[in-house]
Amino acid sequence: MRNDLQDVVDEVSRLLGAPATLEDVDFTLLAFCAHPTDDADDATAAMDAVRARSILGRGSTPATRRWFEDLGIARAERPLRTPADPAAGVLTRLLLPVRADGRTRGYLWLLDGGRTDPDDDTDPALAAAVALAARAGRVLAERDEDGDLGTALAAVLTGPGPARERAARALADRLGDGVPLALVALRPPRGALPPGWRPPPSSAVLPGDGDGDQDGGGDGDEVAVLVRLARTADLRPAGAAAAAALTRLPAGTGAGVSGATSGAGGLPGCWAQARAAAAVAGLVPRLAPVAQWAELGGWRTAAALAAPDPAVAPLLAEPLLAATAEAYLDAAGSVARTAAALGIHRQTLYYRLGRVTALTGLDLADGDTRLLVHASLRRARLPRP
Q1: CATH number of the domain at 2-140, out of 3.30.450.40, 2.40.10.10, 3.90.79.10, 3.30.43.10?
Q2: Which of 28-37, 86-95, 116-125 has the highest mean pLDDT?
Q3: I need a labelling partner for 91 at 20 to 30 A (CA). Which of 100, 228, 331, 376 fits?
Q4: Which CATH class is domain 306-379?
Q5: Which residues have a Cβ under 8 Å from the Cβ of 227 and sit 6 or more positions away?
Q6: How far is CA 146 from CA 91, 115, 361, 368, in A?
Q7: How far apart are CA 205 and CA 221, in angstroms?
Q8: Residue 44 and residue 375: Cα distance in Å, rounded?
Q9: Which of 48-57, 122-131, 230-239 has the lowest mean pLDDT?
């Protein structure tokens, strides 16, 4: 979206030979272009206090917003000339309303020095600029639609029963009943979303519960991204959405892709899958940076547990022994491979395994016990459901 809007601003600036600024209806700066000039006086005149504050502060002050809205810009449906205010250092502007679907979506401002007549319907440059403003309006309408989808998505995933059902029906109405869907979970390290970061389209930022731990997580924000699929079996668009989002998130962010579901009713289950996959991506280097639920193997068994088995609780209280037991089970019970992986002597490994048995009463030579302990140790490292 950002590139599309910048292209519009650049082209309008070229057509009308003036610096251009694009803001949404909340006066948040979306894109700007400084039209090149060889005249120093023209260059100075092209920047007034309002434009400077908009660019430097990424938006306008409430007082500035009221001043322009009192001129009727929110109701304008065609180009409009706004007056100058010399006392306030405000220059005259040409306003191109950015509209779509009968609504004002934003404002495209040009500091043209009063050269363009907003009522001249025979001006080809102005007509082309108006068409470009309409194109920007369509882009912003899609953004607004995605924001509405994000609100409904958050309610489906985290809302109470009645709200969840209403939101699921709303999503079904918007997307079509039975359309294939998938979810992507983005899990920045400890919820460290960058300041000013914009979520991807059709997404929701879901706050954590504030009492997670370093490994198990749950205390930071997570981002759910809704992806519409052409076919249930084709999850490539979801993987592409995850990869694109990772380029703008901190290093160490985990991304997980759920399986597909038909319709909004299956999204809570997809969210559990995507969250688990994102957490595994942050834990298992070979599955990073984007882990697919379908490719998690034994981690899916761990994620299916509501919590680690109580029999493993004493082991979880001893991190060194827990890590040793997990490495031993990862190596299928091979002493040589485990000792090499941990960088310890075999006798040290035997001693630690003996302590595991003494602490828990569990015999890791037993197949059922191995499965229980392995799944529980992995489950302890995943987010709570």
Answers
A1: 3.30.450.40
A2: 116-125
A3: 100
A4: mainly alpha
A5: 181, 182, 183, 184, 202, 237, 238, 241
A6: 35, 38, 53, 48
A7: 7
A8: 67
A9: 48-57
